[in-house]
Amino acid sequence: MPFLQHLLAQLSPKKAFHRQGHGVLLSYLLRWVFISLLVGGVSGSASALFLVLLEFVTQYRETHAWVLYLLPVAGFLIGAAYQYGGKGSEGGNNLLLQTIQKPSLARIPFVMAPLVMLATVLTHLVGGSAGREGTAVQMGGSLADQLTPWLKLRPRDRQVLLICGVSGGFASVFGTPLAGAVFGLEVFLIGQLRYHALLPSFLTACFAHWVTLSWGVGHTVYPEVVPPAFTVLSLGATLLAGICFGVVARGFAGASHAVAAIFKTTIAYRPLRPAIGGVLLLLVLWALGTTNYVGLGIPTIVASFETPLPGYDFALKLFLTALTLGCGFKGGEVTPLFFIGATLGNALFPWLPLPLEMLAALGFVAVFAGAANTPLACTFMAVELFGSGCGMYAGLACVVAYLFSGHKGIYGGQVVGSSKHLLWGRDTGKALEEL
Amino acid sequence: MPFLQHLLAQLSPKKAFHRQGHGVLLSYLLRWVFISLLVGGVSGSASALFLVLLEFVTQYRETHAWVLYLLPVAGFLIGAAYQYGGKGSEGGNNLLLQTIQKPSLARIPFVMAPLVMLATVLTHLVGGSAGREGTAVQMGGSLADQLTPWLKLRPRDRQVLLICGVSGGFASVFGTPLAGAVFGLEVFLIGQLRYHALLPSFLTACFAHWVTLSWGVGHTVYPEVVPPAFTVLSLGATLLAGICFGVVARGFAGASHAVAAIFKTTIAYRPLRPAIGGVLLLLVLWALGTTNYVGLGIPTIVASFETPLPGYDFALKLFLTALTLGCGFKGGEVTPLFFIGATLGNALFPWLPLPLEMLAALGFVAVFAGAANTPLACTFMAVELFGSGCGMYAGLACVVAYLFSGHKGIYGGQVVGSSKHLLWGRDTGKALEEL
């Protein structure tokens, strides 16, 4: 009886392997729950402390405008701290990405975590235009890597651990666990997403987010975006907006690298770069006569969902952020990218048949998607911040921006896993900074 | 002046390449907007017609119970139609996945589209337990592939076209464009996601969804799931539930293949398999004395969000679906997987500290994630169907279910791109049906 034979085959010892499989998977799950709890605990706590400090210095700056005059001094302090106490941690995000790609490299210095936190807080105190994600990601990665010798991890597992650090830092600093989990998986390779760190990355992102919330630290709440009627016009407008976001993302990446290159070639003594950059920033701010573009710029981001703003806002923020980070101040690029994107979306409002808040939301995530080359993480972020109604529009805008930013990006250590277009096929396997 | 040199370098002819790049990208975008409109138009229209027919036959069956007696006759008709008019299209989803992996294979027969639609409608009319996505995906893939010679596509672009067909079919039949877009990218390889079809897939999914809506065809609306308080208990419960969902997903895949193998080895004449299967189904339904488990089962799925149901519902649906599809009736696996997952989640309610609707929602997406090996598409689906509040929990459950279903799944043509666990490292590069 073939039927009975088949039934018996299902129960045979050969199938025991699969029963065994469940035990192996369970121990794998428990192991990574344990490690993710550790990484989530440290990165979530670091993010919580960081967010509290940021809030404090931002309020202080807004009520004590004179601190802007400290820009050159703060710049010098930051430059000197990295020069004499950095132990190689000025590589920042790129050092992290390189180590994820080659997990046999040396340990990420512990000092990266406190140094980048203090430098970023100082940058925000004196009115540099910078963000948070770079700081959170570097804290997460550096703190996670200190567990490597303690947990006796092999290179393969160390790679997963570092991805967890990135995911945890990102998830907890923005309050977006899904975006954080996918960002960690997506950021080190362009054009590919591998699943070997899927479970650890999701676990750490959730735990880190939970830890930050448990410390009583909240996140900016953005309006729920109501999607417009689904027509040829709204779809076409989303694609056009996506092109603009991608081109500006590329422009931001280019400007940041250009400013950094100019400072590097013209000023040999490193601590002097952010000091002179600080003087320039001060002059520009004095000429502009406004502090709209300093710090994180959350009030302007929120305003861009509600009311038309000057069309040049995005360009000024782009320039000031490129100057701040290019000369050596510290902080992330992502919140400025949110600012640039949201105000650019706002500026497109007279030209495109989409609601103002939808354009601001699309710009918010899509400029970031183009500049960081992480379209899926940014689509998740749109859904987590603005509700699921805008998901499809955000997905389209992010994917188009990702394509139109080309092989450019804010992370020079990112490697082209698979080229975005056949035109650039020969870039495959190279890091962005080599191109 | 290095500064001026740098500025001039930015404007040099070498940079013209990048300016040129924008033109290439624009023509690439326009080309795929055009192709995606075509594929979205045909797959979205096919899904609309299919959904209307399904609605009609479901209502007819519910008011005319005697049609269940036609199960054996309908089975024979379907078997005979595939035997004598199938032109190789009985390969179904697997043929599609194999062609995506090897785009030099022969054209997908056009007859696959009408055949699978009629066979599925007939299956649902007489009370088989089946779904929709297989049908929609096969219609999308087959119709898309008819464009290959007309558009003179090379194998690489044909691969992208077929992915578009899958995305469009999936997106339009469930009304979930993001899940559809990512499903098309995720389904043919386990453990990897490549971005070469990112833009076309997103475009087609959106267009197809839009076309189905434009035909006036709607989708089932599920309740917005309110997330529970974020505690150790709720996170731990999500992980435990995810394990259950993964194990049941693996069980479903195993049962389907086992039933198919039994029919294949015991009955040589193919049209007789669904005929005899129909007799068996009729006997089982008569013994059960209920029609709760026939057809799509949408009312039970909706009920599982609201009220506790019998704990054995998921097992009976699993058995009946494996019998229906294993013997040769047509239809997808996904709606039954929604049913199995939602009722399993419902059955876990007395044991796990999560709200009923959250458990049903997690099961809905996570059993599917485990059985189809598409955790990211299912996370997007959760957000699109149940709102962004449940996103993080759904992500965790899907990822755990994906791990615990092992290298098993409902699509035998799926290839292991990168193994889920080192334990199964040697499976890499093999199709699931070879394992």
TrEMBL record, chains A, B:
> Is this entry keyworded Membrane?
yes
Positions of transmembrane segments = 29-54, 66-84, 105-126, 160-185, 229-252, 272-289, 358-378, 385-404
Q: Give a single Pfam family match.
A: Voltage_CLC
The record gives the membrane topology as: Multi-pass membrane protein
Q: Which UniProt keywords apply?
A: Membrane, Transmembrane, Transmembrane helix
Q: Which Gene3D superfamilies match?
A: Clc chloride channel (1.10.3080.10)
Q: Name one GO cellular component term.
A: membrane
Any one GO molecular function term:
chloride transmembrane transporter activity
Q: Which PANTHER family match?
A: CHLORIDE CHANNEL PROTEIN CLC-E (PTHR43427), CHLORIDE TRANSPORTER (PTHR43427:SF12)
State what protein this is by name: H+/Cl- antiporter ClcA
> What species is this protein from?
Rufibacter quisquiliarum
